[in-house]
Give the backbone structure.
Amino acid sequence: MLRDRINMAARKLPTWPVYIVGLIPMGLLFYMGLTGALGPEPIKALEHEYGELALKLLIAGLAIPPLRRLGGVNLLKFRRALGLLAFAYVTAHLLVWLVLDIGDVARIWADIIKRPYMTVGMAGFILLVPLAVTSNKRSIRAMGAGWRKLHRLVYPAVILGGVHFVMLVKGWQIEPLIYLAVILGLVAVRYKGASRCMTPARG
């Protein structure tokens, strides 16, 4: 079966190539921005591309548990890599905005406070910081059950990322709404599955 072949290939594949392949677009997009290949507004384009890639990686990470539960495809070993790559792209997205787009500390804080979409985006980033810091074996051992509870913050963080995207664009565009719908669907599947596991069997 295709599922078995995928699982076998996943068991054989180490996680380090995922990091290398995942970081290639970051450097490539930056080079494209320097050479004018991102259009007349390269900073805005770079900021957008980094943010959208971060959202895609976060969604991919969210999809792994239901993919295993519903489809029998086990890609759990790659979830940490996807999460850390997503955080790297979120950080790059933020740095492009801070350093290349704004470049004024006073204006940065004013924009975060006054512009709701920036407030929402920054809140999502703040939630991701402790997850990235504790995404290592030492933290997992030290925190025990608390590690799993902390890493549930990924769900509100990704939702905030989707809302940030919807609020960022002008008007009601279909692409950000699709992203948000997929995110909400994956979160709903996750909590539906968790509630079933907590419900005692009858009979």
About this structure: Residues 86 and 98 are 18 Å apart (CA to CA). Residues 197-203 have pLDDT under 50 and may be disordered.
